Amino acid sequence: MRIIVIGGTGLAEQVADALHGAGDEVTVIDTEPGRESALAKAGLRAVHGDALVPSTLEAAGALRADVLVACTQSDEDNLVISLLAKKRFNVPRVVARVNDPANDELFNHSWGVDALVSPATALVSMIRQES
Amino acid sequence: MQVVITGCGRTGRALVTRLDAEGDKVTVIELDDTVKRGLPAGFRGRFVLGNGINPRVLEAAGIAHAEAFVALTPNDSANIVSARAARDIYRVPHVLARLHDPAHAPVYTEFGIATVGSVQTTVNRVIQLLHHRMLEPHQTFGNGETLLVRSRVPAYLAGRRVAEFNVPGEIGVVELSRAGHSKIPEPSTPLEDGDVLSFIVAATSLGRLRSFLGGKWS
């Protein structure tokens, strides 16, 4: 699958790595310059830029992507990127990260989000199940 | 008018002060509790602490009954998220959002959100004042991208036709005043010495219009 992952080091990078390891064609968009070579070494295609600018998403191949993962540390950015991906680029599957559980309810189809990943909520529900 | 504003920095505070003085019912949404102190003395509106992208915060601010919503936070994405909710979910009649990074303008356009862009407005105004002082606009549209400019036709252009000034997408002649009478001219109308023309012109084409007019006009 062709997958675009948006976000910097941390969760976004780990997601990109894992997907690439599983055989997917992964492109990472990050606002931080100079990460291209490190990402290329890991076998990832990198686009340096702001994913809120449609031309950046296009350069990353949004028109042909099967999946887009909005994984930045800003919920607002993730929502806007998700809607842009869905509305403008018709990306079939949009997955977004929720940083603040208070924003969980916003991450739905009205913002182009097909599935949400909420690390905090996942962790809490796991803790509840264990105890 | 009932107005909800998110973001109360310099611009927000100035706007709130003005609206409050004009008798509007203003509710301010802010993440930072300390900005409350910066509100004008005797402020009659309300202050809601929270993030304006959160539906419950918007509802606590009375968004459902607001006549206007203005997103003025320093974050373009936050402004887009709350402005879109105000317009599409709460059906607020007048919604405006501040645009900081001009590169984000296409996103606002894509989602149909009217913007107030400080960077673009400032750049257009500075260029206007530096390069095109003689073409003082009667009216500017949007964030200064399009202007309405009036100018007397210089004598040496008498006999030229209106159509010669029209450049699609850049410059259009929209009105002609001659001997105290105004009309909307035909493209074939010949110009006379003393005519005053109204042009609609793109800010980026002011230089072109100025060169048409040769700088020899008053």
N-end to C-end Cα span of chain A? 38 Å
Indicate the mean pLDDT of chain B.
91
Order of helices and strands of chain A: EHEHEHEHEEH
Helix share of residues of chain A? Answer: 25-40%
Largest sheet of chain A: 6 strands, parallel
Shape of chain A: globular
The H-and-E topology of chain B, N to C, reads as EHEEHEHEHEHEEEEEH
Classified in CATH, the superfamily of the largest domain in chain B is NAD(P)-binding Rossmann-like Domain
Sheet with most strands: strand arrangement of chain A: 3-2-1-4-5-6
* Shape annotation of chain B: elongated
Greatest interface and its participating residue counts: A-B, 19 and 19 residues
**If strands are numbered along the chain, what order do they take across the biggest sheet of chain B?**
3-2-1-4-5-6
The radius of gyration of chain B is 22 Å
Beta-strand fraction estimate of chain B: 25-35%
Low-pLDDT segments of chain A: none
> Domains counted in the coordinates of chain B: how many?
2
Identify the quaternary structure here: heterodimer
What's the gist of this structure?
The complex is a heterodimer of chains A (131) and B (218). Chain A is α/β, with parallel strands linked by helices and 131 residues long. Chain A has helices at residues 11-21, 36-41, 54-59, 75-87, 119-130, and strands at 2-6, 25-30, 45-48, 67-70, 93-97, 115-117.
Q: How does the SSE layout of this entry go?
A:
The complex is a heterodimer of chains A (131) and B (218).
Chain A: E1 2-6, H1 11-21, E2 25-30, H2 36-41, E3 45-48, H3 54-59, E4 67-70, H4 75-87, E5 93-97, E6 115-117, H5 119-130
Parallel strand pairs in A: 1-2, 1-4, 2-3, 4-5, 5-6
Chain B: E1 2-6, H1 10-21, E2 25-30, E3 46-49, H2 55-60, E4 68-71, H3 76-88, E5 94-99, H4 105-110, E6 114-117, H5 118-131, E7 137-141, E8 146-152, E9 171-178, E10 181-183, E11 196-202, H6 206-212
Parallel strand pairs in B: 1-2, 1-4, 2-3, 4-5, 5-6
Antiparallel strand pairs in B: 7-8, 8-11, 9-10, 9-11
